Amino acid sequence: MANVTLNNGVIMPQEGFGVFQVNDLKECERAVSEALAVGYRSIDTAQAYGNEAAVGQAIKASGIKREDIFLTTKVWVSNAGYDKAKASIAQSMAKLQTDYLDLVLIHQPFGDYYGTYRALEELYKAGQIRAIGVSNFYPDRYVDLVKNMDVVPAVNQLETHVFNQRQTDRVFLDKYGTQIESWGPFAEGKNNLFHNPTLTKIGQQYDKTAAQVALRFLIQSGVVIIPKSTHKERMQQNINIWDFELSAADLEQITALDTGKSLFLDHYAGKTAENFNDRKL
Q1: Mean pLDDT across the chain, nearest whole number?
Q2: CA 118, CA 239: separation in Å to the nearest integer?
Q3: Active site residues
Q4: Is residue 1 a contact partner of residue 17, using CB atoms and an 8 Å limit?
Q5: In what order do the strands lie in the sheet with 224-225?
Q6: rRNA-binding among the record's keywords (predicted)?
Q7: Mean pLDDT along residues 160-183
Q8: Does residue 185 lie within any of the structural domains?
């Protein structure tokens, strides 16, 4: 598996394991334990997922050295603002049973995210967080944050998959040196991704599934991925994408699948802002 080097020199695995919507704590602990056993060394969670404690317990029980695991969490909107963010991050560390975090992201571009980012900068400079960043920040808010803060975000985690390849976002992320990371690399199966004719046909050349081709396209495009599964055999399939390489012709065909639109939600919509601001942890 390859790594990426973030803009502050921190090394991050290019493939990790996500636990979004793994709400049952016992199931989450089992899934993370199996992911670590399969070979994942990057785990992505969030305050809003409600499973940080299960992630922490799985890591502790694994026997793997803490420094060998890249651990990410995210600050939710109801914890936004300098004081609340600092307190919530301390709570996250306690739940995760760690005295430092590898990456902390602002989960959504709502609430007092400037205050949150100031808290992240302070903890970063104090060495409690190795890298800081954002999630779901579209170019306007991302650039505005870059222009008004001391530390350029190391990561921006965005909905990124073969149907929404974030070409416009990447112009600005590349300009300012922020690593793109994908949430929803399978588009949660929308647009029939797992049986897409283009992905399936390409996969047949390499004895790979459409899902594996979709992941391989992202990593060859320089994207960090965090696919989720609660099935060990699929965890293994998702990590078995490092033994083949898509050709230029393959990449061209998959690039043509891009619609340039979200399949889930619009962060510019007033209803989206209402929903995220109204959700309290």
Answers
A1: 97
A2: 35
A3: 49
A4: no
A5: 17-18, 42-44, 70-75, 103-106, 132-135, 155-159, 179-183, 224-225
A6: no
A7: 98
A8: yes
pLDDT tens by residue, 40-70: 999 999 999 999 999 999 999 999 999 999 9
Q: Coil, strand or helix: which one is 180?
A: strand
Q: 238: domain range?
A: 3-276
Residue 195 marked ligand-binding: no
How many helices (H) and strands (E) are present in the chain, helices listed first?
Answer: 11, 10
pLDDT (0 to 100) of residue 73: 98
Sort 158 into a burial class: Cβ within 10 Å, 0-12 / 13-18 / 19+.
buried
Instruction: Report the C-alpha gap between 237 and 62 in whole angstroms.
Output: 21
What are 102-146's pLDDT values in tens digits? 999 999 999 999 999 999 999 999 999 999 999 999 999 999 999
Residue 281, domain member (yes or no): no
Contact 117, 132 (CB under 8 A): yes
In a domain, 121, yes or no: yes
